[in-house]
Structures are given as structure tokens and as C-alpha cells.
Specification:
The complex is a heterodimer. Chain A contains no helices and eleven strands. In chain A, strand 5 and strand 6 form a beta hairpin. Chain A is mostly beta strands. In chain B, strand 6 and strand 7 form a beta hairpin. The radius of gyration of chain B is 13 Å and the shape is globular. The chains are: A mainly beta, B mainly beta. At the A-B interface, strand 4, strand 5, strand 9 and strand 10 of A face strand 4, strand 5 and strand 10 of B.
Chain lengths: 112, 110
Amino acid sequence: GAGVSQTPSNKVTEKGKYVELRCDPISGHTALYWYRQSLGQGPEFLIYFQGTGAADDSGLPNDRFFAVRPEGSVSTLKIQRTERGDSAVYLCASSFALNEQYFGPGTRLTVT
Amino acid sequence: GIQVEQSPPDLILQEGANSTLRCNFSDSVNNLQWFHQNPWGQLINLFYIPSGTKQNGRLSATTVATERYSLLYISSSQTTDSGVYFCAVDQVGNDYKLSFGAGTTVTVRA
């Protein structure tokens, strides 16, 4: 079946603007994760959903970042008042229960 | 949090050569995954291997959980094997949060 999909693939925004990044997990996967990857580094955990609720949001850098998963499937990562330091690739992953995680292609966010 | 160290950081191979990548981790883990990140940035699952040995074509992996390390073997390397290889683990008690190493950048030359 289809893998994890993310939209948009690229997003360029101006400093101070609001952005939304979307993740569509693999059908039937109960767990959904967001990670962020800066250039030359491995991905870093942001937030984990089990069903509709955020089970662990300890990786979100500050309160400008927020994520939702209202129906237990698609998730949206929201960033308010974007800063240049938010520029990175945002990766979404999903898994069945707490098993192997599968990643989407990522959204490359550039804040100018 | 758990520390994940990968070595070597960079590896240059001639096509057809064999290589071994290493991943050391600082605490007990539930899950260990190896990924290949291709030039377009996609993370491709190679192995889900919290313990034991697995093989998939020219690739194989071994995890010795009691000694806190994992090895990824690439045999008869091809130019398409180029990219960054990541090891990621989740720590016992945080069995959903993958912690990644810094990766090994592999370049295979024709």
C-alpha cells in the first residue's frame, strides 16, 4: 500500500509568518511521530501521537510549535511566528503500535 | 537521554568492496532500526533489529543488545549504495522515541 505522505514537499515563508505541515500516515497505523532534521544531522524527535492525543510532546522546541491529529489519522504540525532557526526538514513517521517506524519524504521548510 | 554513536563518519568505497558500519548506544533499548537516506532525503528502512542477525540481499545486520552495539554490513557495494546510513534506537522506558546517531556518509565510486 501507500507509504507515509507529506505536504507540501517544500515551503518557503517569511520570518514571522504561520505555516502548517501535513502528514498522512500509512493506513492502519495507530502511532504517528514528527521529527526535525537539520543539515548534516540525524532527525530529532518532536512529538508522538497514539490515536488522537499527543502522548509525548517533549521534543517541541517552544510554544510556537503545536501539532494535532483530530481523527487519529492525518496530522498537522503548526508553527507560529516562524524564525530563521526553524528552517529544517520536518519528517513524519508512523507505526503499527510501537513497532517499526516508517518515514515520509519530509517537508523542507525555509524561513527567509 | 540515550547516546548513539556511529562510526566511521565517512566512508569512501570502490565499487565491489565490502564494508562494516558500527552503531554504539549507551543504554538498554527496545528497538533498533537502520536506515539509508538517499540523495533526495528519503529515509529507507533497512532493518528492524533489536537483537540477533538479519540479512537482506547484499546487506546484513547484527545487534548484540547486551553489549550495546549493532553492525551493518554492505557487501559488493554499488554506486546506488551511496548516501547516509543512520542507526536509531528507542530507550527502554521511551519505547516510541527514536534517537538517531549522526550517520555514516558512504560514497561508492565506480
